[in-house]
Amino acid sequence: MSKRYKQLIEKIDTTKSYTVAEASETIKDLKSAKFDETVEVALNLNVDPRHADQMVRGAIVLPHGTGKTVRVAVFAKGAKADEAKAAGADIVGTDDLVAQIKEGVFNFDVVVAAPDCMGLVGQIGRILGPKGLMPNPKTGTVTPDVATAVKNVKGGQVAFRVDKKGNIHAGIGKVSFDAQKIAENLHSFVKAINKQKPASAKGRYIKNGALSLTMSPALKLDITELADLK
To answer: pLDDT, tens digit, for every residue of 107-121?
Structure first.
């Protein structure tokens, strides 16, 4: 364990469960890197994603954005392509975009697709899927309203998906945000997770929660408070 990390751990109470307000204040004291670290939330859910009815997946537009510049590629043609460009899409294409991706060029962070282009996208599903870039209706990235999708992604939309062990990770802001903005983003994110609670999930839904920075130890979150965020 590095000296820097030990000094950070001394700033937190490892036996305590922090409220959202407390964690949002304390996390700002844990900044140690020279860059603007990302505020990251990790939740462990009481679900078994091997069962389709317990898959937790969706997207939320955070009230204060993520603080990250997101590059968006859009599969669209005709008027939809024009709408995507007007909304601020970084790349808009069809066959040319497929060719670019097949060549291994990924100068984008999120992919949006109009429904009539999903046949094209299917050709590169094996490339996009493992990178977490495959458009999906549940995250709002397959939609006839490509302009709104682009604006949402650019404006701070965070997509989430539970992994095989029931964990969800997401960046919900930057350490340069004030504590209130961090808290409001965290509230919104947890509410979105709670709304996705599967009907078949039994017992306590959020088992554990933690807030951290890119280079910091984690603050344990009060899961009773998280469960009440509706």
So the answer is: 999 999 999 999 999
Helix, strand or coil, per DSSP, at residue 150: helix
C-alpha 15/C-alpha 111 separation (Å) is 41
* SS3 per residue for 185-207: HHHHHHHHHHHCCCCCCCCCCEE
Beta strands in 62-109 (DSSP E): 72-75, 91-93
Which amino acid, residue 64?
A: H
State how far the Cα of 200 lies from the Cα of 203, in Å rounded to an integer.
Answer: 10
- pLDDT tens per residue, range 111-168: 999 999 999 999 999 999 999 899 999 889 999 999 999 999 999 999 899 999 999 9
C-alpha–C-alpha distance, residues 83 and 194, integer Å: 33
> What is d(CA 199, CA 192) in angstroms, rounded to the nearest whole number?
15
Phi-psi region of 12 (alpha: psi -120 to 50; beta: other; left: phi over 0): beta
Q: Letter for the amino acid at 139?
A: T
Query: What φ, ψ does residue 110 adopt, rounded to 5°?
Result: -140, 145
Q: What residues pair up with 33 in beta bridges, in sequence order? A: none
